[in-house]
Amino acid sequence: MTGEFDWIERIVSCLGPSGSGIGDDAAVLTGPDGETWVWTIDTLVERVHFRFDWLEPEAVGHRGLVASLSDLAAMGAEPVAVLTALAAPPDWLADRVERLYEGLAATARHAGCPVVGGDLSRAAEVQLTVTALGRCEGRALTRGGARPEDEVWVTGALGGPAAALALLAREGPKPDVLAHAAYDRLARPAARIDEVRWLQTRAQLGAVIDISDGLSGDAGHVADASGVAITIDVGRLPVDAGAGDVGRRLNADPIEWALHGGEEFEVLLTARPGSIGPLVEEFEATFGISLTAIGTAVEGAGVQKVENEVAKPLDTKSWDHFATPPDSGV
Amino acid sequence: MTGEFDWIERIVSCLGPSGSGIGDDAAVLTGPDGETWVWTIDTLVERVHFRFDWLEPEAVGHRGLVASLSDLAAMGAEPVAVLTALAAPPDWLADRVERLYEGLAATARHAGCPVVGGDLSRAAEVQLTVTALGRCEGRALTRGGARPEDEVWVTGALGGPAAALALLAREGPKPDVLAHAAYDRLARPAARIDEVRWLQTRAQLGAVIDISDGLSGDAGHVADASGVAITIDVGRLPVDAGAGDVGRRLNADPIEWALHGGEEFEVLLTARPGSIGPLVEEFEATFGISLTAIGTAVEGAGVQKVENEVAKPLDTKSWDHFATPPDSGV
Questions:
Q1: pTM of the model as a whole
Q2: Within 10 Å of residue B34's Cβ, how many Cβ atoms?
Q3: Which CATH class is domain A151-323?
Q4: Testing the interface with A: which of B2, B9, B15 to mutate, by most A Cβ within 10 A?
């Protein structure tokens, strides 16, 4: 079956010369005075990206906005403004439109990013599209900036959202599932805007990408765009404590969720050797999340995982909507 | 039943202080050096805004882009760039994604507006969202700029798209229907970007709005936003020749399509008395479309139609997706 990334190639070939700048977390525009703007769009589709029996409308609004803010974060941009487009059945709107927008608005206020307009359509299924515009003080960070010898770092702890999905699939939205720490990672993720900007002014960053498609797949995107190989030391992966707990409960390996789970908005960064290490303590004290060296960029191509000192090619499964059964997703 | 415009009010109240600038064709952003950017988003939903048995995929792509470019036109902005989000079933994509994007890309090239990125999702129904960013040389034009005594003008000839829809509904997508001049107005509308910018530098414009919701409804939006009444002289309406022909064929009044039809991207402008009249000949020679004085702005509220020298309140039916049966639309 043809996957999402193949479709994107086909579309880019249709767009021809007008389709410039496609292929990073966000498009980069240069303003008339040389300033750098970045711009992104993301759609959440009911029953593909989320299920209303698993996620409150407020959380859907929150996640819809965070998906776009996270793209800006990965480019080193500060959010400027947001537009939304919501399509939904009228009876759905009557019950839940305010709750969805309240979730979205709370997150927008928190990010200092006004919602300046939107579009509303009747439709058979709920689709929430958010487009966000941001501005970079210097150059935009991209997924193509990694060089051999760069260290590979990741923010936060991984695997929580995928663990929560596994738990929901097994046990349903029971109260103790919804109260689980892993569920909180699914329902209330954060975009790492301040974290990336903080590092950008202090470290020698190479490539940056958010890992909303999953660590392995997004590491693959960095490898492809940068022309390097990425090596991930599985033993160093910062696995979310909630994901660890779910792993014990379901007799599953939380490392798989951390490697391939996606649906989270941490960022993978590469940096010149030694340029991040001295900053870790201050970073973790400032932001209250971890910053972990998980591997290196080397000459070559693709992604390798190192486990017990043995390197093997890593399956870079990405979150690919077209290769996933229709009822999967949050 | 609650209509689209009521929902928008409810959403704006949820957004609170973060929901600034909502309510014109596009949002207005002021850049760091005082420059004016405008930004819009529009979604086309299959079976609400279009039907694939009535419209080729190329025409859907074209219309999706024109809906957003027309919003920029109404603000007096030049398009800078576009992002798209397409959600569709995988089997639909296999057959038609390239044709949709070829239609969109051809129109983008024609407008000098690069498509800089996009998002692609699996979904049960086809939804195409386009967001466009534009830049104004001076101030942004708005629907709130009409003053009493302004003349009311409209570009182009009206009613073609609605006539084509009536014909399709009655006779189906037969070859001679698809070859009809009115159908061309439906399938290949143009955004009046150059026309508005040309007038902006030469006339004293008041309010500007595109009439994609229908002339009567959009005149009502100008009246509300400007705090004036708009009077439309029905005898002066420039009715599309194709719409006239369809009217005779279906024994229907094309004036109704011109007044309420919508789905077209002409613009209504108000201007200080005498400031457009001397420009009409040059405008029509330059752009190959008509420019017609159809009424005036006066003290008061709402929209009135003048017919045989009698003024009556005009029903400002707007294109309201939520009050329309699910299978209507293009």
A1: 0.90
A2: 6
A3: alpha beta
A4: B15
